[in-house]
Amino acid sequence: MSLRLGILVAVVLAFLSLAGAMLWYRGEAIAAEADRARAIADLNTAVDANKAQEETIGRLRASAEANDRIIAEMAEQIADIGQAVTETNQAVGDLKDANEDVRAYLASPVPPDLKRLLDR
Known about the structure:
Helix 1 packs across helix 2 (about 100-105). Helix content is about 95%, strand content about 0%. It has helices spanning about 1-100, 100-105, 110-120. The radius of gyration is 46 Å and the shape is rod-shaped. With about 120 residues, the chain is an all-alpha fold.
């Protein structure tokens, strides 16, 4: 009878060991599934952040291109203004050389109030 009892105890211990191992592996599987779900959530968060950053970069590039166009237009306008000033100064100089009345007018002093206004 003690042999039967020993075999029975061995079988019960083997069964309990097998059940314990199954429960341990089941716990590991549950933990792995939770880790997988967290990893997927983290991945989705990263993908969403990357999409938002790409959209922001696109807006910034469009803004930079618009700024570049505006600066180019302003540079062209400044060059045109500079050319117009040069042409006007040349025309005034030519007129001063050619016309005695203009030369006398340009040689007269500028009134102080007008000078202050022009010097601002």
